[in-house]
């Protein structure tokens, strides 16, 4: 039987209503090439309405619009104005190669590009706008757009492309509804617990997975939002935390490694900061401990482009449990399957592939009719995990990153974490390289901490001393490098590393 | 353009998935006539599956089921089992007169009644089950129901009838989706912020507005849930807070007045309690101050049956602002209209009727085809309010409770609060009574604190000393009584009070 509840679209308009009507004196702070921009939600909302008129005037209302932009207030205005007009905001990864940019913009059929001025990209076939002071003025003179349509919640709002290390980028389109529900879920006290008394800094790029929806969640509940702008360095981040009293900041583990390193070197402090949200890769225990010494909690989040960023969260007070990926947030369901797709028990021992479904999970890729779901229900994550009886998930490895040696599995993630727990090591990555006898063998890449010396033998001895690995699980080789190759979204670029090993061996041979 | 996000029903099944899979060792504690029942989410979930099989066996799967029951674990099992089978749980107000119960059960077309044993009600035309130990055993022997259907989120889940003081009760039916979204909204840190480290006690009746959805929100995030059972007295509530470490408890202001009074008298304490959620009527400032002295914060919520309980929240740290009803929670929009339906500004001065819309707002009453919305958009709340520029709402009065004297309005709520701020007064209510010369004049009902003496003159002088009221706004008469008449849901029964004034005058005359 039908309920008596009204139809109400969970859309960007419903989020914007809150921003414009409820928290008008709250602030948005944005670092740009022209300096720090500070304005209120009231002024921001007015700008969004003017930008909507600007888009309409240019014939771009309801169209697909590409942005190639950093985390700034200008980007944030587009986050609202484009979907409010029932268009789709396509956030292009600024770290893509120009040919990749060409590809995704063509795939998506974008009608215009809004680009930060420092990003090298030319596309003569599409109208382009540079996000600079001239653009600001052109928007400023517009009449505010009066009334936004009540867009159906299942319509697309924000598109982005995965940055896989193999194959072409694949597009996903988040809906108005998925942005609303995911953002609301982030506000839950047991998830991020963002509140109106927080100052939130979104360091994860707004050009990918809508900054994990944290700009939306922040504005929905009246938090002060800090956007760190183009190419923020550790120094910039630390300064902004201090200057603006940032209480919660969201960034990949490598960013926090740099930040902690900077704070140690410069005898700085992180005093306003209460929590960091991190994910995309497992935060090393050493990092979590260091942050804890500075009075900062670590929230370990897990997710992927296909789950609209955060799907599970671990906020354990027990630092030693924080390597787990934690519990599915409201709106997400999880299961564990074996290679035949059969469900495995949650006993903390059975190892299988994590599959997920829920209110912000993708069922297919853009421009591809085929449903990618297992049993027409579950998205395969490609992550190999164990699940404890209480639902807490531990990623053991990526399916494609497991190393198969002599018919047995070696976890590259376990090896990486073990190496990174060594005091002289800044960062480490492990890849499997082809081996005639064993099929595959592990090779480690290591970045030393500045100013210290460390040898291959020393690290191998350290690994042995941990009593965590069988002898055949230890790396055959340790290669010292200045920095670990990463993909455009900051993930370990194992493909590039395998190439490096090949060259290394060829050179030696 | 469509998104690539999967279809996923926000339904009770999605909530139950969390309860059964994620927090299996968390506890539910229930006070019953047979004593305290404690069991885990795991055992609870198993019982829900057995109860579903029991319902199926009795031919009640997918049907409308009436409960006439207190806040117990048995009621909670029905909260899940009935909607999980795509039936509708109709919670009947235990304080209804038997003829009202007959009426609502017939209106809803219920196929069975599940009733606590102490409630006097007989209905020979419908199968009835008594929620006792025999019933427990009948459910216990069932095989657990294997797989619940994926009910469309717009289907009805829970029905309840308003308890207006005029006219027949009117039914509303909450949907699976509205229960999910409202519960998720309650989990937001800026709303109730219920978390897995909380012990929540739902004292507001589960027989009305699904206990403000706080049982669902608690179970959705793994909080310990305490249900205070049949007719809990202040003593029971205080004991349970102590014994089970309740951190957050939800009840009407009158309950908290009794609790604070009991604690004062018995030199008790409320030490585990961090916050009380209260609403339905405005909590008096004196109560808020007393709770604060005990280290307990007051969260002032506003809502109505037609908004699925909580629609706005005030968690201000400034005690003097806590009389405001606060900000709309995520999923709710508000506006202010005048008598002609024209929008009024949010300037903290303009007085008009509050209208609301959103994801858990009713558009019509059960068995009535007519949409009750203003402009086919807004639900008229009947509350006369001012709205501040930042969106915070202050209820001035109920439309029907404003007193019109000599063409000017007198706010009965303002008078009630002023009288209750007098140290010798426990409770007060003000009604308008017909007056030949002025149209209407205010008359106050006052309950003295035990053991003190107070006169009409003393109260009038106190009101004058506040400098808040013009002379013509002061009550013509103060009537001392032992308790204020209330409706079955604890609201001031002004209809009954007007009758009392009439009799009082007749007696005098």
Q: What does this 3D model show about the protein?
A:
Two copies of one chain form a homodimer. Chain A has 509 residues and is an alpha/beta fold. Chain A folds into two domains: 28-393, 3-Layer(aba) Sandwich (Rossmann fold), CATH 3.40.50.12780; 401-508, GMP Synthetase, Chain A, domain 3. The first copy, chain A, has 13 helices and 24 strands. Chain A has a nine-stranded mixed sheet with strand order 2-1-10-9-11-12-13-14-15, sandwiched between helices. In chain A, strands 6-5-3-4-7-8 form a six-stranded mixed sheet, sandwiched between helices. Chain A has a four-stranded antiparallel sheet with strand order 16-17-18-19. In chain A, helix 6 crosses helix 7 (214-220) and helix 8 crosses helix 9 (253-265). The radius of gyration of chain A is 23 Å and the shape is globular. The mean pLDDT of chain A is 93. At the A-B interface, helix 1, strand 8, helix 6 and strand 15 of A face helix 1, strand 8, helix 6 and strand 15 of B.
Named CATH topology of the largest domain in chain A: Rossmann fold
CATH superfamily of the largest domain in chain A: ANL, N-terminal domain
Largest beta sheet: strand ordering of chain A:
2-1-10-9-11-12-13-14-15
Instruction: Report mean pLDDT of chain A, rounded to a whole number.
Output: 93
Q: Specify which chain pair forms the largest interface.
A: A-B, 66 and 66 residues
Helix content of chain A: 25-40%
End-to-end gap of chain A: 75 Å
Task: Describe the largest sheet of chain A.
Answer: 9 strands, mixed
Number of strands of chain A: 24
How many domains comprise the coordinates of chain A? 2
Report the uncertain regions of chain A. none
Rg result of chain A: 23 Å
Beta-strand percentage of chain A?
Answer: 25-35%
CATH top level class name of the largest domain in chain A: Alpha Beta
Shape annotation of chain A: globular
Looking at the overall shape, the CATH architecture of the largest domain in chain A is: 3-Layer(aba) Sandwich
